[in-house]
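Quick one before lunch.
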Amino acid sequence: MPATSIGARGAIITGWGSALPPRVVTNADLMRTLDTSDEWIKERSGISERHVGGTTSELSVESGRQALRMAGLDPSEIDALVLSTTTPDRTVPATSATVQNALGLKCGAFDVNAACSGFVYALTVAHGLIAVGARKILVIGTDTLSRITDWNDRNTAVLFADGSGAVVLEAVDGPGQLLAWDIDADGSAEELLYCELGGTIHMEGKEVFRRAVRIMVDSGQKSLEAAGVSADEVALVVPHQANIRIIQAACERLGIPIERAATVLHYTGNTSSASIPLALVDALNAGRLKDGDNVLLVGFGAGMTAASAVLRWGGIR
Ligand code: ACO
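Model of the acetyl coenzyme *A complex:
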């Protein structure tokens, strides 16, 4: 899908929240069962520890509740719930149905699966719903990758973990925050990164790394161009948190100083759908965004999907 700039009725983010399971698994913990080292994991991925536990619905309810509270909304006011996940609690119903009930929402609810790009896909879909009449939408990105990880495989076990992030989107009269978006997929690369039903993740790490940098840069540049925003004008880039070296390489090629990247992977690991909202919420809570700042969200994932969005921060109550 070519990057698209926005002309329709827009939306702003009015609330956000995040959730990490309490159990922390350090690199030293993994060294007890895997032939690996703290040094290797940190140097090759940037990860020091990760959070493991809970179900996708439990973590979603926690982050979603925080986002609703911050937006000052009663659950009955939400018009739709869009939940991005690759690790649903059940095949049927969608995990969003469980979350809808637990949060007391009275609205349509559905899951989106675009692997680690899923949160940006979900955010884009939510803006589409706003453009055709919805007023308040809860968008959540959650994954419990620990449930589909082979804990005896050192190639993947050191990377994946669990978490959730959520935002509330509210319609505004006018263009809103989203300046441009891009979604993409290349199904021909399916065999590089997949998980059979009931199985565990298989990944060709080196090739995924190579492609990840390329497609993040490509998608990010498309969105920036469609938004009319130069790399210099990006105040914060919120990349998918898979590997610090992927983030560094992508930032370098995009021409955005690494200091402007939001990173949480050192304490979260790769949480797939949750990684971009977790990093965004972390940056927001640290006061890293002010009105008028341009934000680039950019992710990649199995499929191989890529997605990016440019937001101009502001208008928050
Ligand atoms: N500890 C110690 N050694 C290890 C480990 C480990 N945990 N894992 C692999 N090694 C070894 C390898 O066996 C290899 O040894 P060899 O040279 O004797 O064969 C050596 O380290 C180098 O391995 P590489 O694969 O070349 O290491 P690389 O620098 O590429 O890093 C990594 C591997 C971290 C997996 C990297 O390739 C990567 O991050 N790839 C992208 C992963 C990613 O982004 N996944 C996205 C998933 S998105 C989603 O949808 C879930």
